[in-house]
Amino acid sequence: MMNDDLVAIGGDFHPQRLINAYENGLFPWFIDDYGYINWYSPNKRMVLKPENMRVSKSLRKSITNKGFVVKSNTNFLEVIKNCSSIKRKHEDNTWISDEFIYAYTQLHDLEIANSIEVYLDNELVGGLYGLVIGNIFCGESMFAKVTDASKVAFYHLCQWAKENEIELIDCQVYNDHLASLGATEISRVEYFKILGIN
Description:
This protein is α+β, with helices and mostly antiparallel strands. It is built from 7 helices and 10 strands. It has helices at residues 15-23, 57-65, 76-85, 98-109, 149-163, 176-180, 188-195, and strands at 6-9, 27-31, 37-40, 44-48, 69-72, 113-120, 123-133, 136-144, 168-172, 184-187. Helix 3 (76-85) packs antiparallel against helix 4. The two termini are 24 Å apart. The mean pLDDT is 93.
């Protein structure tokens, strides 16, 4: 993140405030040491058009042959809890605090936040969650306990997005994993245009 990506500090997690933030290209990333929510709008936004997802041969095999069962919105709370506790490279801790979990669970109850869950032998082994804002799916986080489980969730997200006229998946900020799946960076201005912000 660059210094100009942080655009606001403070506020709360009231559902309408969260919705307004996403509608204006902002998202909360973490609560700082003083208890304030930090709101970001990256100058370079990582996004993916659903039809542009790259599916490797190995991922295709995992999708068709590994025995994964994919569901949606049946276990939102466990998805976000797993996203908060999974160990990630280059990260010592998580931004998904109890306050985040409560806030996004409220959005799920309002049918704004959604989850995709991946099961293997009846065990939740991967998934992701995010919000639908207009024709954009604002992805928040994903996790995997077995190889390719989060990629399978992402693949099914892209299929669902195409079926439901979702134009863009907002991946927020660059990482190599998302780039390998076909996500690219666009400018903040381009992202605002897609949101309909002048």
